From TrEMBL:
Entry's Gene Ontology molecular function annotations: ATP binding
Keyword ATP-binding on entry: yes
Keyword terms of this UniProt record: ATP-binding, Nucleotide-binding, Transport
Pfam families per the UniProt record, alphabetical: ABC_tran
InterPro entries with a match to the protein in the record: AAA+_ATPase, ABC_transporter-like_ATP-bd, ABC_transporter-like_CS, ABC_transpr_LolD-like, MacB-like_ATP-bd, P-loop_NTPase
Protein name: ABC transporter ATP-binding protein
UniProt entry tagged with the keyword Iron: no
Record organism: Pseudoalteromonas obscura
Length: 235
């Protein structure tokens, strides 16, 4: 079963009687262990695709399954549950809370989970996530005592601590200089080598190259898909 399976997915935004066809007939399957980069110029539908995959917005037509579960006609609570269970988000902005330590920032979503975890489970998960991104030595620092690259690693740890089925990553290097950007990309690549499934959206072809599979969008349609093994196969 694919982690994520989109079949003929379209998204149409309607505002003030104007229709925008943001995505048209997208077919995309992401399997455990994949690292997919979705790239394309501004306005091609990258953010829309990520928000559909992250259950932040509804598809207009087609079918979207996550871990084999059809997401159509589920109520908001069930969608929120699926999102918490399966999705880890990483954004361009780190969205860390300045008043909390690194440790507490990573622990916070675990504390507010539907199914409560024991304190020792939380501690274990947070420490493991912090070492996965090599920031455990800064657990007691506040976010503003860290470099941008370190803050993004904390944000990655926060996503990992939820033990999601997939990391959805949106322009992770957008706020970073190239040195810190490269370091964050290296961390994502090493997480993927250890088995983490990743789908990343970027307009930067250089960073897309870190992924194992490439999906190129143009005007809301898949222009090309490519993996390391197969040179090219069109969806
Ligand atoms: P990208 O992330 O590749 O820049 P987007 O997914 O943000 O592209 O946008 C795809 C298209 O959908 C664009 O034409 C954009 O203007 C439009 N769009 C995005 N969000 C909305 C919205 N909330 N309402 C109306 N149109 C939208
Ligand atoms: P990295 O270790 O990710 O390459 P830097 O070389 O930018 O990060 O930072 C080295 C050290 O300086 C870090 O351990 C960090 O704690 C500290 N530091 C970096 N930037 C800032 C900042 N803007 N404010 C406070 N401390 C910082």
């Amino acid at each position: 079963t694919p982690v994520i399976e989109l079949t003929n997915v379209s998204k149409v935004y309607v505002s003030e009687n104007v229709e925008t066809h943001a995505l048209t007939n997208i077919n995309l399957s992401i399997y455990k262990g994949d690292y997919v980069a979705i790239s394309g110029p501004s306005g091609c539908g990258k953010s829309t695709l990520l928000s559909l995959m992250g259950l932040l917005d509804d598809i207009s037509s087609g079918s979207y399954k996550i871990e084999g579960v059809d997401t159509q006609s589920l109520d908001a609570d069930t969608l929120a549950e699926l999102r918490n269970l399966h999705i880890g988000f990483i954004f361009q902005s780190f969205n860390l809370i300045d008043e909390l330590s690194v440790f507490d920032n990573v622990a916070l979503p675990l504390i507010y989970r539907e199914q409560p975890l024991s304190q020792s489970d939380i501690t274990q998960r947070v420490n493991r996530a912090l070492s996965q991104v090599e920031i455990d030595h800064r657990a007691n620092h506040k976010p503003n005592q860290l470099s941008g690259g370190q803050q993004q690693r904390v944000a990655i740890a926060r996503a990992l601590a939820g033990e999601p089925s997939i990391l959805l990553v949106d322009e992770p290097t957008g706020n970073l200089d190239s040195k810190n950007g490269d370091a964050v990309m290296a961390i994502l690549a090493s997480l993927n080598e250890q088995g983490t499934t990743i789908c990343m959206v970027t307009h930067d072809p250089r960073y897309a190259g870190y992924a194992k599979q490439q999906v190129k969008l143009l005007d809301g349609e898949v222009l090309q898909t490519q993996s390391e093994v197969n040179d090219s196969d069109n969806v």
